[in-house]
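Q: What residues go here?
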């Protein structure tokens, strides 16, 4: 078995770790919506949340029925479900029970919990959602399957359930620092969700199309990602990246494209553009400084590349991103070979 990244590349822990770096750029915010207690026969219909949804069962048994997915999913105590949130769904004691609209119950819920069915608490479940910025939606929502069930026996499920329960407690508490504690707990929950996704053998590459998020768990591709994420300003060559993966250039390029969906240097270009968008949205860093931090030899070279990618010059992108009257600015989509031809020094970047 290959040594972990931290052993092969000293200092790879923390912000330079690809997953940690990605978490910072996508600005993920996890929040719990409400808890559910129930007993007897019951069924609650939820509208499509439009966000990545997390549902954990802390006690009892719940059936999850998602519109457009044929088979209901059985969730026992300790199980966690993660789904894309583009469809409505139902939580029920039995999938054959006619559901009632949950929204009126949510509006009258006390203490962060609503109750369904008969008296008692045979079932306790907690639900939440994950908000992502525009880069995160492109990177994560396209990567996640319509539904992922994290079994209670996995390493991530107990931690996820505990975090959801503790987050809800903090949200309901008036203790000093409760809001800060809830925010950090929710962020840890999102890390557990990503770990479960990356470790889910049922959705590994080969069973699904390539995606960039899963590349972070690939033993061959991850070292190259570490280098590109850790120092995006460096003019990385295919030979350097292949050497980090202990592969020939041809074999590495083929594997990288199979796992990620893009050639290595095309991915580097797209990652630089994502970083640029993140900085332009969230900071007042001068464009010339952004260009330098991403390896571009001049502000004009960076501006031209950025405009080819987003359709806007950096200054206009920043204005649009911060203007509440405008729609969300363009975000980096799937890069196509040939869309950009120059790196920081005017040399060919994509191959």
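A:
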């Amino acid at each position: 078995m290959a040594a972990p990244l931290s052993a092969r590349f000293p200092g790879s822990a923390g912000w330079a770790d690809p997953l940690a770096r990605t978490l910072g750029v996508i600005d993920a915010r996890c929040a719990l919506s409400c808890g559910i207690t129930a007993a007897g026969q019951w069924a609650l219909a939820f509208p499509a949340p439009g966000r990545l949804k997390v549902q954990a069962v802390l006690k009892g048994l719940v059936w999850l029925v998602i519109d457009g997915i044929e088979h209901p999913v059985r969730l026992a105590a300790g199980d966690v479900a993660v789904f894309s949130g583009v469809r409505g769904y139902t939580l029920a004691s039995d999938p054959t029970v006619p559901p009632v609209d949950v929204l009126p119950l949510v509006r009258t819920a006390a203490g962060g919990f609503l109750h369904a069915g008969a008296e008692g608490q045979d079932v306790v479940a907690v639900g939440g959602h994950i908000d992502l910025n525009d880069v995160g939606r492109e990177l994560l929502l396209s990567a996640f399957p319509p539904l992922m069930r994290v079994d209670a026996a996995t390493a991530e499920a107990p931690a996820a359930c505990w975090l959801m329960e503790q987050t809800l407690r903090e949200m309901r508490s008036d203790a000093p620092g409760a809001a800060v504690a809830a925010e950090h707990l929710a962020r840890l929950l999102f890390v557990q969700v990503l770990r479960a996704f990356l470790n889910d053998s049922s959705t590994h590459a080969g069973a699904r199309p390539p995606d960039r998020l899963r590349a972070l768990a690939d033993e061959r591709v991850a070292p190259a990602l570490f280098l590109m994420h850790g120092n995006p300003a460096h003019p990385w060559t295919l030979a350097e990246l292949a050497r980090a993966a202990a592969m020939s250039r041809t074999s590495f390029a083929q594997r990288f494209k199979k796992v990620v969906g893009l050639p290595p240097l095309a991915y580097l270009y797209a990652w630089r553009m994502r970083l640029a968008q993140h900085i332009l949205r969230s900071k007042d860093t001068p464009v010339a400084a952004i260009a330098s931090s991403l390896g571009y030899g001049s502000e004009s070279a960076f501006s031209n590349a950025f405009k080819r990618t987003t359709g806007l010059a950096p200054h206009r992108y920043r204005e649009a991103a911060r203007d509440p009257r405008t729609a969300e600015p363009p975000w980096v989509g799937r890069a196509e070979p040939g869309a950009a031809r120059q790196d920081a020094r005017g040399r060919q970047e994509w191959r």
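A: Context that may help when evaluating the design: The first helix runs from residue 5 to 8. The longest strand covers residues 29-39.
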